[in-house]
Design brief:
By secondary structure, this protein is of the alpha+beta class. It folds into 2 domains: 4-64; 74-171, PH-domain like (Roll). 52% of the residues lie in helices and 23% in strands. It contains 5 helices and 7 strands; from the N terminus they run E-H-H-E-E-E-E-E-H-H-E-H. It has helices at residues 10-33, 38-64, 117-126, 129-142, 157-171; strands spanning 4-6, 70-72, 76-81, 84-89, 93-101, 108-115, 146-149. Helix 1 (10-33) packs antiparallel against helix 2. The protein is elongated. It starts with a strand and ends with a helix.
Amino acid sequence: MKEIKLYHKVWAMLPVLLVLLALTIVFIIPLSQGKGSLVWNWSLLLFSGSAFLFFLFLILRERLLHKPPLIITEDKVIDNNVGRIKEYHFTDIHHFDLIVYPGLYVSQAVIRIHYMPSVETKKMSEAKGMDRIYRKMNVAMMNAQDSIQVTNLTMKPRQLCDLLNERLKKKR
């Protein structure tokens, strides 16, 4: 089986970039004219400008450096988000399932990772600090310790979940 690399759809990120860029420009205008509260205007400008730069960084990082946010290999899934890289080995996983949270403009698709009972207990007992809180919160909210964000990837969420479960069956 070959390695599958999934990227974010650029066209899905463009509206977010354009809105943040427009907000940044709009917040520059009161600063240049000296109107309004200086602290408030700078705060809004810094927020929208840094959010714009962050999303631009994500897109450029993925495309120019060829760092996909999700890689599926023969024996594991690599979730390569900014700031963290997580590996989920098929030997530890019982099954994957898809959950979609409806949103106002865009629904959020998440693949829940259900571990084997022994692995689930081990992961929870080995977790420290914020990781332990994160896992407990995930169990309370989603009934799974870990999940993978799959909104706006180059493969549809249902297809991706089916592919992961197929690879899981082949690994057993």
